[in-house]
Amino acid sequence: MDEETGNRMVKALRLGPDGIEETAWCAPQEVPIGMVYNKTPHAVMMASPLDLHDFALGYALAEGVINAAAECLALETKTLKNGLELHMEIPARRMERLAMHGQKRAHFGRSGCGLCGVDRLEDAIRPVPVLPQSDIRIAYTKAANAAKMLNGLQPLRRTNKSVHGAAWVSADGAVMMVREDIGRHSALDKLIGACAGDGMDFTNGFALLSSRCTYELVQKCALAGISALLTLSAPSASAIETAKRANVSLASWDRKAGALVAFNGQVWTL
What we know:
Elements: E1 7-16, E2 19-28, E3 31-37, E4 40-47, H1 52-62, E5 74-80, E6 83-89, H2 92-100, E7 107-109, E8 138-139, H3 140-150, H4 155-160, E9 164-170, E10 175-181, H5 184-197, E11 205-209, H6 215-224, E12 228-231, H7 237-246, E13 249-254, E14 259-264, E15 268-269
């Protein structure tokens, strides 16, 4: 990881009109960051490991843990095996308020949004299953057509311009199902539920998401048995690492270049 920018360079394949070529891709880093107040774990957030002092103070103020910057009596960053912890010392009366109002969130905040009931750093990253090697092949032109179609298949987005879409696309490029939600995680959850209810085969196609790809979206796909994922924005470094661990074929659509950037998996072809 580049300590100054929070990025990581990864290798990928670019599939486009000019064929297949290897490329170096700059992926943003996201790590679990534990918020600890007076030695008591409070929440774990996924975030870029930059400007940590600002993050700790801003989070505490925005969540109402403290009322003023001066109530941050001390702040220490600890680097652990699984991530970082930001230890803040706050007045005893603030800790009492957290307990009294039940504000010990005990949650894991994914990049951008989402809760999953975790307050300890070691519990933040769940293990993912290793999916069987897929024998399907998805032509980049089919994936590209589906990516271009997604926006027009979102009726809610046409009216409010603010929701994410998640689609299930068959291996031959046909969009079979679309679900929407203001949260990209919830959109994927809805899609998984709809497809499972319809008895769709998760090994014979791919999930298409309108959002960027963070690790927990790959994790959701792996847990549901979805072996291929295409997103309209690029993935984080931990999303790529999770895809490799879980054997999920991961790619993003590069609109500017009109090409598919494959970070993992052999399902993507010309």
